[in-house]
Amino acid sequence: MEDKSNGMWVIIITFAIAMLFSVVALPNFVPWELGYLRPEWVVLVLIYWVIALPHRVGPLVAWIMGLLVDVLSGSLLGQHGLIFIIILYITASLYQRLRMFTVWQQSLIVFVIVGLGQLLNFWIENMIGLSKWDLWYLFPAVMSALTWPWIFMVLRFLRRFFRVS
Questions:
Q1: Consecutive 10-residue runs of the chain (165 residues): their mean pLDDT?
Q2: Which residue from 62, 95, 96, 99 is spatially nearest to 81, judged by alpha carbons?
Q3: Which pLDDT belongs to residue 30?
Q4: How far apart (Å, rounded) are the C-alpha atoms in residues 118 and 45?
């Protein structure tokens, strides 16, 4: 008899590590523009868990993770929560198709989803007067797509090793 909560701690730890990666400061000698080359770690973990276990990771998890990212990044409260729920909806509506794609094909879809999230983030920040358009703004989507195969393989290994279901 398996414990139904056996894998929830793995999901929580992966989100915590993703949040840690998203707020780690770059060294002072690194130009600030390279901060835009950081993948959207929390979004990648969210996309993976929605594809792998759509019945375990839903809107409540996306909203809570978004609020935590808002608090960690100092952005408008609810901004990332809204974006993460939209990303969750898109991913959940495509999860059966995404499972059939190769990892590199999934990377293209991840690029589009993360790019949409970045555009929504820019739109919200632009509405409240916090940012101006710059081409650097879409680089996290490119880096997220390039990082996706490794994120996918690591999280799939963890899911199988710890028998998360």
A1: 70 97 85 84 98 95 97 93 98 95 97 96 89 81 97 97 93
A2: 62
A3: 81
A4: 16
pLDDT of residue 3: 56
Q: How many residues does the chain have?
A: 165
Residue 14: name the closest of 51, 39, 41 by CA: 41
- Distance between CA atoms of residues 16 and 10, nearest Å: 10
- CA–CA dist 8, 53 (Å, integer): 11
Q: What is the DSSP letter of 164?
A: -
CB-CB contact of 36 with 136 (8 Å): yes
Domain ranges within the chain, ordered by starting residue? 8-161
Rounded to an integer, what distance in angstroms lies between the CA atom of residue 89 and that of residue 82?
Answer: 11
pLDDT at 12: 96
Evaluated on CA atoms 44, 47, 49, 51, the torsion sign reads negative
Contact 55, 77 (CB under 8 A): no
- Scan for tokens 């589009």, then name that residue: 112
